[in-house]
Amino acid sequence: MFKRTKICSGLMLAFGGTLAMSTSPSLAQQQLERVEVTGSAIKRINSEGVAPVEIITRKQIERTGATSINELLRSIPSIDIFDQGELASNSPAGSGTASIRLRGLSDSEVLVLLNGRRLPVNALYDSSGAGAAFDINSLPIGAIERIEVLKDGGSAIYGADAVAGVVNFITKTDYQGIELTATYGKSSRNDGEEKRVGLSAGFGDLSKDRYNVLFGVDVFKREPILRKDRDISSSVNFTRFGGTDLRSSFAPTGNVIDPNTGNFVAVTYKPCPPGSLQTSINRCRYDFNASLLTAYNGADRLSALAVGTVQITPSVKAFTELTFSTSKDHFDAHPVPDFFIVPILDPSHQPFEITPGSGTVYIAGRFMQGGPRMTDRKSNFLNAVVGAEGSFGSYDWKAHLNRGESKVTNNDSGYYNSNLWVPATSSGALDPTVGTNDPAFVESLKVRPVREGKSILTSVSTQLNGSIAKMPAGDLLFAVGVNANKEDLNDTPDVLTQQGLVIGSIQQAAVSATRKNAAIFGELSIPVLKDLEAQAALRYDKYSGGSSATSPKVGLKWSAMPELALRGSYSGSFRAPVLKQLYGAREEGAANVTSPVHCTLLGVPLNPDGTCDFAIFQVNGSNANLTPEKGKTLNLGIVFEVAKNYSASIDWWKINKTSDISTPTIESAIEQGLFSRTGARVSVFTTLQNIAERETSGVDVDARLRFPGTAIGNLEVRNLLTYYSTQKSRDTPGGRWDDFNGTYATPRYRNVLNVSTEAGPWTVGGSWRTVGGFWDSDLPLQDKPANTRRVGVHEELDMLVQFSGVKNLELSFGIKNLFDREPPLSLQNAGSNLYTQMGFAELYSSRGRFYYLSAKYAFR
Question: How far apart are CA 73 and CA 84, in angstroms?
């Protein structure tokens, strides 16, 4: 039989820690030390807890060879990947950003913490609420000591946005010495070059000097990879793969348009360049993947961290923490496409003359002389904390004031003022098919829009925890806390952009909003029996405007025997509507209702023949009456250690999300009574509503084998698997459940197999990452066509060799994607401008084989 302490080690390993079996005094001391682990406010031994928490240590981070937080997360199968922000360069709000998704839910349903404290969301996000999440590219990877991932609802402790889980980035503290790191990498195709330099320094010993100061700086630069330089994305004419030709009909030489119907008429305006003519319809095409656009965005980032701690008394210390990052990104898009009036050059154009005798025709063209549309994006992140913590008797306390600010500025060029552009293009004053227009005239039409966004989160928090009483099975532990938050959002596009008068861009609304909330929570750790622990937590959040949420959590952990533990938990979580969903713009447009059923519901008399065709006004956009979305999470798990060097955990989870914010159809809005009548005017409200429902479920498996003292060193094998059994939703109350499990970009499973061995100063490791295949359709499984193709399984092998045989020096050489696997073809991606149109899902990149060399030197 194993000793009781062995199950603690097994639990820690199942949580993703790197604690190895040992009886050294230092390890025993670590096991007895009580610390706060993500998912509970009660200080406890690391291995305790009722919910699955995965811990990624500094050592594990370094062994991935990742140069950014976003790249690091690819090695964690429980993290959902949808990397459009790193791949696409034509999203006004999202390009250059990265966020975290868990459990098949959106990035705004994962709470991201830095040292246990909330962070502001990205300053620019869509009016629907998409992208309202913290940009993890703002964090310096060199300053991260470990990452804790709570794979359970966390609202009972942390409040809003923790429906899918919590990811807590924890930085270095109390560090002495200087550490320098440098990394250089490049793809096997001689592009995508990466350079990273980091410095960490700390001085002062809290126990001796009563102070410690730590600071770190991280500089990262990456050259972009262009779509034209990868076979799969080199052209949007996907007929070579059995798809369709998606080259643009807005060609620089023009395609003639019928002025009466607006349709293409199979007549080119000027001779089409070789290879650009689609002969079947006699149309000139423009291949937007053949130049300019990126397959992997460049990056230019600087980040810094400073932490100062003072031991005021033996039991009280004060601290201040400052995190700063700035990034600069440049994105190119193709010159502006539009419709133009031009002179008739060829008799074949004559039948399509705009008006008899005018001598002009309409064409769909692209104004190449004006140059590409460009965005220079600058993003700044600043997070400042002051606080104190201490203890008295058997109680611990802490309090802090935190202010985080995300500021983003987009400076655009290559765009045109609609008030000047339309007269120039409709009068024939501008010829889009030549490069000899008067440059001064062209420049006079241009405009340089600027969009500025700022997101600020200010919070105050206090917390007390300790022991209430002695019970027969142990201490009854508690934690209580209160906190208050204030959110500010300002998103100010250029005035012309707000009016929809920037040619080549989209209309964007300005938002300026503030919201406050206050909360109180309590948590208990109850030793029911010697081998049975219970957790109970409850939090109440109150928001300005009247909405509120109560979030409970209960859990049990039963150590059935020294080799086996069972755990389970139930939690209620919520996501408050983001500010743009509440206070963003509203739009109104005309529409018609033709269904007799819906006309009757509106109180509109039917025609004598039973038909109806009634004009209404459709109101879209934000809704100040939205309430929090609700989530319920159930986790059941088993943790076991069947032999001295084998441990594993299996956890089943299920999340049901209700009151999900979605946009109803006109018919659904009428059925729900979301309309009003003022005289003869009927308005139907398809504004955002709490009407949808989501459900996801699956299994996580974490298994480890250790073979110490083999001929090749201390060998360790670890396999992590996340498997989805359900990913379904319905967008109206009582509507049909749509199953998306295994459809486009929602694979059923992700698996990572890690093998490493340590022998003296050498460490050799490999990581085999597998992403499951899926049906090449974004329709629900019930609606996908019978002949839908399958996107295959994708696998990549990363290798690493480390050497630490020189004092204070560690060298690493690695190869990512050793076998140079290309992403599997997706015609769904290729065929829809909802996606990147690079021919593969945003689960992967087309970088290919990548070599890197890293060196770390420590001055102690």
Answer: 15
Name the one residue in this structure whose structure tokens are 């100061």: 213
Query: Is residue 499 left, alpha or beta, with left meaning phi > 0 and alpha meaning psi from -120 to 50?
Result: alpha
DSSP 19: P
How many residues in total does the chain contain? 860
Give me the pLDDT at residue 641, please.
87
Q: Can you give the pLDDT at residue 163?
A: 95
**Where does residue 783 fall: left (phi above 0), alpha (psi -120 to 50 degrees), or beta otherwise?**
alpha
Instruction: Kindly give, in sequence order, each residue whose CB lies less than 8 Å from that of residue 634, ignoring residues fewer than 6 positions away.
Output: 568, 569, 570, 653, 654
Dist. CA 541–CA 528, nearest whole Å = 29
495 Cβ contact partners less than 8 Å away, ≥ 6 residues apart: none
* Cα-Cα end-to-end distance for the chain: 43
Contacts of 742 (CB under 8 A, 6+ apart): 748, 772, 773, 774, 775, 781
Beta bridge partners of 360: 343
Amino acid at 251: A
Q: Beta partners for 182?
A: 197, 855
- Tell me if residue 240 falls in helix, strand or coil: helix
Q: What is the pLDDT of residue 708?
A: 92
**Residue 18 has what pLDDT?**
32
Residue pointed to by tokens 């220079």: 376
Q: Under a CB-based contact definition with an 8 Å cutoff, are residues 621 and 582 in contact?
A: no
Q: Return the HEC string of 29-71.
A: HHHHCCECCCCCCCCECCCCCCCCEEEEEHHHHHHHCCCCHHH
Helical ranges in 347-471 per DSSP H: 418-426, 439-445
Q: What is the dihedral of CA 20, 26, 32, 37, to 10 degrees?
A: -60
Please check whether residue 558 is in contact with residue 535, taking contact to mean a CB–CB distance below 8 angstroms: no
Which residue in 526, 493, 667, 520 sits closest to 591, CA to CA? 667
| Paired strand residues for 245 | 237
Averaged pLDDT of the chain: 90
- Token pair for 838: 């690079």
Whose CA is closest to 306, among 202, 399, 182, 394? 202
Q: State the DSSP code for 664.
A: P
Q: Average pLDDT for residues 253-261, to the nearest whole number?
A: 92
3-state helix, strand, coil in the chain (%, to 5): 15, 50, 35
Q: Are strands 548-561 and 532-543 parallel, antiparallel or unpaired?
A: antiparallel
The pLDDT tens digits of the residues spanning 554-570 come to 999 999 998 899 999 99
CA quadruple 735, 736, 739, 745: dihedral sign:
negative
**Cα–Cα distance measured from residue 584 to residue 622, given in angstroms and rounded to the nearest whole number:** 5
Can you read off the two tokens belonging to residue 40? 């509970």
C-alpha count within 13 angstroms, C-beta hemisphere, residue 200: 21
pTM of structure: 0.90
**Distance from C-alpha of 839 to C-alpha of 829, rounded to nearest angstrom:** 6
* 655 or 48, which is more confident: 655
E strand or H helix at 499? none
**Which position has the token pair 């999340």?**
655
Q: Which residues pair with 458 in a beta bridge?
A: 403, 486
| Contact criterion met (CB below 8 Å) for 286 and 276 | yes
CA angle 290, 293, 295 (to 5 degrees): 100
Give helix 4-14 / helix 25-32 axis angle, nearest 10°: 70
C-alpha Rg value of the chain to the nearest Å: 30
pLDDT band of residue 617 (cuts 50, 70, 90) is: confident
SS3 string, 311-374, reads EEECCEEEEEEEEEEEEEEEEEECCCEEEEEEECCCHHHHHHCCCCCCCEEEEEEECHHHCCEE
Which H/E stretch holds residue 127? none
Task: Find, among 505, 673, 663, 684, the residue nearest to 584 by Cα.
Answer: 663
Do β-strands 850-859 and 809-816 pair in parallel, antiparallel, or remain unpaired? antiparallel
| Contact of 838 with 829, CB cutoff 8 Å | yes
Tokens 């030197």: give the residue.
857
Helix H or strand E segment including 779: none
